[in-house]
Amino acid sequence: MRSPSRFPPGSPVVERVASAFAFGVNSSRSRATPAALREFGSVMDESISRAIPAAEWSFIRGCLAGAERSLQSARQSRLEEASRQSDAMWAEVDSRIQSLSLVGRMLTDVFLGPGFAYLHYRLEDYDGARAIIRRVSDLDHRLATEFGLVHLGVHRLQLAGNLLRIHTRLDERSEALQLGAMLLDYLELRAEPPSNDILSARALLDSSPGAILEYYFDKITGDLGVFLAGNGDSGCFRHHGFAGSDECLHGFAPRAHGWMRMKRAALQGEVESSLDMSADLLRTGCASSPSLWFATVMEVATQFRYLGGDASVMADRMLAEASALAEAPWELQQAIHRR
Question: Who is most buried in 98, 181, 266, 328, counting CB within 10 A?
Answer without folding.
Answer: 266
